[in-house]
Amino acid sequence: YNEGSVDHEMTFFPWRNPWQADWSQTKTKDAASVYKALLKVKAGPAWARAGYFQPKGPGVLGVNWSFLPGTYQGAEVGADFGKLSLAAAWANQYKAPWFTRTYKFKKTDFSKDSDDPKRLRDVDYLWSAGARYEIIDGLSLEAAYGESQNYLWNAHFKAKYNTDLGDGRNLYLTWQTYVMNDQSGNGGIDDNFASTAWQQYLAAVYNTGPWAFNLEFTYSKAPNDSPDHAGYFTYRLTRPSGGSKGAYGPWWDLRSDWNHHEEKAAFLKVGRKLDDLGLHGFKAAVSGAYGWGGKSWQTDQKFKEAAYGIDLSYTVDQGFLEGTVVALHFTRYDNKTTLPDWDPFHNAFQDEHDVKFSIVI
């Protein structure tokens, strides 16, 4: 039940899928939705799942999140051999968590022979395959590749290292590379990119006593030289938001995706548990991000943006409501250009603030 705007991502939209928005609607859709319903099979190191599922093995498929995750309709198979994990997935429909039913994948087809130059064509299926290997304790490598039928391909490489430094200290380091392109690869009128798009992601998380420090960095390439190209990097096997999702690591919760062509972005977060101050179960954090250098073929102006966030949460650790989390999040976002929404930077919007208060039992 929700009385927010009709396209608020913590509710159900009052239309069928991401491509048929009806802006004449004035009320959100109040309903229930099944997000997981599947058959699971296991035999020795091998396993399989079919139905409504969220991918769990290594691969390029991920899900959108609200209070619950998005859902693929299809199947996933895998096997675990000690430190080596293998998986493959196939899906023919998806639903983001703000829809109640699954829908087909779509691609945008730009046709000169059509009265409607932007037509949505069905994509019958997506597939993904991946492998993860733990070289030594705490150090793992993952590689994956996937395609949408006659549309896009995605690939990534992830290296993660997690080590206990003793005395309550822990260090996590990761380097992740994401790559994608149209299967045609020629940058034509039907394509999302002028050439191969990619993003580099570096992160370090250091925990010591009650303190946690995050330092993260991204660099995005999404070559564009026509109004039909995206101009930003979003790792998924379909272009429209809510149509699918990739197995993507960065999450800064500061409104923007920080992903325009040639944009560099840095993120810093400092968090603290407050138990030793007599506030048992409480956590607080402040964070900030700055992005610069974004380019669009439509303007000489470079894109710059900044945001900061404040978080406060409380977790119940005993009793009937054990595990319940009460959280408050505030974000202030600043678009540092004088350009309008969505054009010439197709994933940019104006200054805003965002307040979220949630109780999850």
3D architecture notes:
- With 361 residues, the chain is mainly β.
- The protein is 0% helix and 52% strand.
- It contains no helices and 17 strands.
- It has strands spanning 37-43, 46-53, 71-81, 84-95, 103-110, 118-123, 126-136, 139-148, 152-166, 169-182, 197-208, 211-221, 264-273, 282-296, 299-315, 325-335, 352-360.
- The chain has a 17-stranded antiparallel beta sheet that branches.
- Mean pLDDT is 93; it is low at 111-115.
Question: Any descriptors?
Answer:
361 residues; mainly beta; 17-stranded antiparallel β-sheet
Derived structural class: mainly beta
Shape: globular
| Beta-strand residue percentage | over 45%
Task: Give the biggest sheet.
Answer: 17 strands, antiparallel
Mean pLDDT: 93
Number of strands: 17
Unreliable spans: 111-115
- By DSSP (H or I, 4+ residues per run), the number of helices equals 0
Q: Strand-and-helix sequence, N→C?
A: EEEEEEEEEEEEEEEEE
Helix % is under 10%
For this entry, what is the oligomeric state of its chains?
single chain
Query: End-to-end distance, in Å?
Result: 16 Å
Radius of gyration: 21 Å
